[in-house]
Every structure is written in C-alpha cells, then in structure tokens.
Amino acid sequence: MDKEKRQPSLIEAFIPIIFLIILLSFNVSIFGDDALSGSNQIVLILSTAVAAVVAGRLGYSWNELQEGIVKSISSAMTSLLILLLIGSLAGTWLISGIVPAMIYYGLQILSPGIFLFAACVVCAIVSIATGSSWTTAATIGIALIGIGKALGISEGLIAGAILSGAYFGDKMSPLSDTTNLAPAMAGTDLFTHIRYMAYTTFPSITISLILFLIIGFSSGGEGTISNTQVMLDAISSKFNINGLLFIVPITVVVLIVRKVPAIPALLIGTLLGGVFAIIFQPEVVREVAGISGSTLDVMFVGVMKALYGSVAVSTDNDMVNELLSSGGMYGMLGTIWLILSAMSFGGVMEKAGLLKRIASAVISLVNSTGSLVASTVGTCVFFNITASDQYLAIVVPGRMYADIYRDRELAPENLSRTLEDSGTVTSVLIPWNTCGAYHSTVLGVSTLAYAPYCFFNIISPFMTMLFAYLGLKIRHLRSAEKVAA
Questions:
Q1: Per residue in 156-168, pLDDT tens?
Q2: Same domain? 267 vs 138
Q3: pLDDT (tens digit per residue) in 72-93
Q4: 4 within a domain of the structure (yes/no)
Q5: How many domains does the chain have?
Q6: Looking at the structure, do residues 28 and 106 belong to the same domain, yes or no?
Q7: Are the C-beta atoms of 397 and 426 separated by less than 8 Å?
Q8: Which of 243, 170, 145 is nearest to 394 (CA)?
Q9: DSSP one-letter string for 390-409
Q10: Bridge partners of residue 209, in order along the sequence
Q11: Which of 166, 269, 405, 480 is surrounded by the fewest CB atoms within 10 Å?
C-alpha cells in the first residue's frame, strides 16, 4: 500500500535550493574555474540527496523519485548525443583544415574594431537559418573564438558576442524548437508568437550590437598586422587551405535548414570532416595518428583519434597552437556528467512537487500586468537554475501561468513572448544548466567568463518586463476570444 503523500510547505521546498546555492557558492569560491571539472557535479548529487530526503518525508518512495530522475534524464538524452557528436565534429573539422581555414580567412576579413559586432550578426544569421544556437556555436562559433583570440580579444567577450547573436536567431527562427514550444505552452500560434516577440527582441539586440561596437572600437584588441601575418603563415605552412573545405560546413547548414534532424546532420558533418582530412591533410592525419604502417592503417587511426580523443596540431607559433586543439568525444564527458547530475536534481524536485510549491508562492504575489510578467520571468529563471533545463523553464511556467493570463484577459502571445524572453535566453548564463554547460564546453570558455558579456541574454528579460510595466504592446483578449479559450 502506497504511503499517503502530503504537499510540501514553502520552507521544505526551499531546503534543497538553499543547500544547493550555499554549497555551490562555497565550491566555486574554492575551486574557481575548475569547479566544472567535477566538484559542481558532486554538489548537485548531494543536493539531489537532500531533495530526496525531503521528498521521503512527504511520502514519496525511492522508486517514485527514481522514476522522476529517469524521466528528467531521458528528456536530455538528445542533448547528450548532440554533445558527443559535437566533440567528434570539432576533432575532424580541426584535422581536415576546416576550422583552420575559417580562422585563416577570418583573420584577413575581420578587424578587431568591428569583430564583436560582426560575430554577433553572423551568428544571428546562421542561427535564424538553422534554428539552433547549439549548432551555431559548434560550427561558426568555434571558428570565431579562434579568430577573435588571434586578434587579441578577450575570449569572454568573443563568446558573449557569439551567444548573443546565436540566441537572437534561436528565438526568432521558426525552425527553433523553443520558438515552437513556447506558443504551444501558451496557446497561440507560431507566427503570431514571432511577430509579437519582435517588439522586445529587436530593441534588445540593437542595444547589444551598439555595446559590442563601442567595446570593439574602444579596445580594438591587441592584434597587429605583423602578428596576424605570422599566424597566417603558421596556419598555411601546416594545412592545405582552400575554399573546397567549406563544402562540409555549408552541407551541414543546408541539411539543418532543410529540417534534417540535428543528430544525423552533425554525424554527416563529422564523417565528411574525416574524409576531407584524408583527402586534403594526409600529413596532419599522420601526425595525429603517431604510428607507422600502411596508409590505410595510419589514416584510420588518425581520424579515429580525432573522433574520440584529445588531439593537438603543432606549428612554430605558440598562439596558433592554442587554437589548434580538440578534446573529441572524450572532452565532452565532464559536461555530460554535469548534465546528468543537474537533471537528477531537477527530476527529484519536480517529482516531489517542490518546484511547483515555490512557483505557486510567487504567483500569489501578482497584482498587476507588470508584476505578472515579472513573476513569469522570475519563475523561468528560477527553473533554469533549479531544473537545469531550458525546456522545463518554458514548459512548467507555461502550464502554470496560461490560465492566469487568460483570467486577466491577456492574450496568450503575452505569455509566449515572456517565456522566450526569459526561459530561452537565460539558460546559457547558468553554469550547471544544460545550455550553460554545453556552450562553455564547446566554446572552451567558462560560463562565468562569458556571462557578463551576453548582453542580449541579460537585456531580454528586463526588456519584456519594461514593456509590461509601461503597458507597451500588451494585447488583451476580445470577448469572442475569451469565450473560445
């Protein structure tokens, strides 16, 4: 016979959160940037244990909590597979000369003054075309990190510009999963959602671009023409640089634009990278393989090492050497560990109703349109921090607030816009969130280093609250619509 369950009190619901915040803060102060190497994961596991103890006192059995953990992890499985493929893709795109070619041509086109602005715009365009901030960061983002570092620009600034553009495109693209998910949760249609979201999104990206221009022209980076030429010579002496290498990334972008799922598209890009490595960079593949033998054996070992392990290509320039390395699939294992730990914590918190209890307390404080939108923003950010997943940060608040918005005669696009302006974009700012962990690993920049420069992601939730408090573009339901709802 099942044990009778009771609803958690607000204090009980906050116990695991308080434990998590205190221990994470202490942990980061001790380990610094190395916290993601394993200690943060342990903190999340210990917080999961605390949440399980609270849930046990509420009447939940371990089997029930385990079901919640499994369900939560299952929702992240696609992300985990993508992470593994991105690691392999980075490896084959390195030894094939694709990433070096992007850096090579980029150094000749982009100047330090306009680099941040251009990086943001390029990533926005690519993300709109693909509908994926993840794919944008893993392809053009990796190359831009290399180019920016070669120009002497801070890697935190570079990543901030990349992610600002990538998440603008992710929000506005009809191909994006979150852009489809938000209106589905709120009860409106896709293109109404996109049109209504444009009111807050374009001012946010405009301010961000202005900031990147100001920073770019005021700092300008430390790169010089002579230094750039030395780096170009180092790259061209090691790799066969030519335009044909861009066939691979263009193929990946075309596949995703044609709605080929991310996993097969990335797998094709990874394998093509290996083929192009054998065709265009056989000497680099031999160096990576590190063995003697038949050409077939050497090529197989070299490409295989790039797929699964850490590889580095050496030149006579130390700065170039820093850019020409990859961790392969192996380099993604720490991030996968972090995501598994975070999703375990979120699974127990959701299964036991602890997250729902905290959210309901927030809703009780709502007394105006402005405060309703602000509480929605706060709830989305809260779920990004505690549930560690942007999808949960859209789905759960969407379900919670849909009836409240309708009862207050607010059209559902008000809610869908707020979900995206807060749930989608702030996920990348939290180190243990799936998005924060992913982008930090792919770009090789810690979340705490790039977060202050993700201007678009920071401005967006404040912009949507500003519109709400000022009563700008707040659409109300007509009588017929209320009846239909």
A1: 999 999 999 999 9
A2: yes
A3: 888 778 778 887 887 898 889 8
A4: no
A5: 2
A6: no
A7: no
A8: 170
A9: TTHHHHHHHHHHHHHHHHTT
A10: none
A11: 480
